[in-house]
């Protein structure tokens, strides 16, 4: 799968189960009416169940200048969730999930379906709000390294 180029995102949640954010690339648009996103989260990560328990997530698409943020949310540096969130500027839209203010785009979603496939949770979210940031090259992950969509 390392040969499959993908945009890099930080997916976040907040609610009764707690706050969490992780870097992911397994994302796709499912429908535009209603706007629906699909995300995949590794089940082996101890706290990824918080997304399902909170029933909300925000999908934040990163620009090339946000590689350090991506690395922090992927676990590099072994930062706590609180320290990871301190690296960015966050707001909320409708669901209460943290939205990265300077992301290329953020999709605030309510979970409408989940299931498990192999090692991952597959989560479908209905988009309730969108925040569009400044246009620019997106952060891409390919061959186990970061690239720009302008490369």
UniProtKB/TrEMBL annotation:
A biological process (GO) annotation for this entry? pyrimidine nucleobase catabolic process
Species for this entry: Phyllobacterium zundukense
Q: Mind listing the GO molecular function terms for this protein?
A: FMN binding; monooxygenase activity; riboflavin reductase (NADPH) activity
| Name of the protein in its database record | 4-hydroxyphenylacetate 3-monooxygenase
Q: Where is the Flavin reductase like domain?
A: 1-148
InterPro entries, from UniProt?
Flavin_Rdtase-like_dom, NADH-dep_flavin_reductase, Split_barrel_FMN-bd
Record flagged with keyword Oxidoreductase: yes
Could you tell me the superkingdom of the organism this chain comes from? Bacteria
Which parts of the chain are coiled coil?
none
Sorted alphabetically, the keyword list is: Monooxygenase, Oxidoreductase
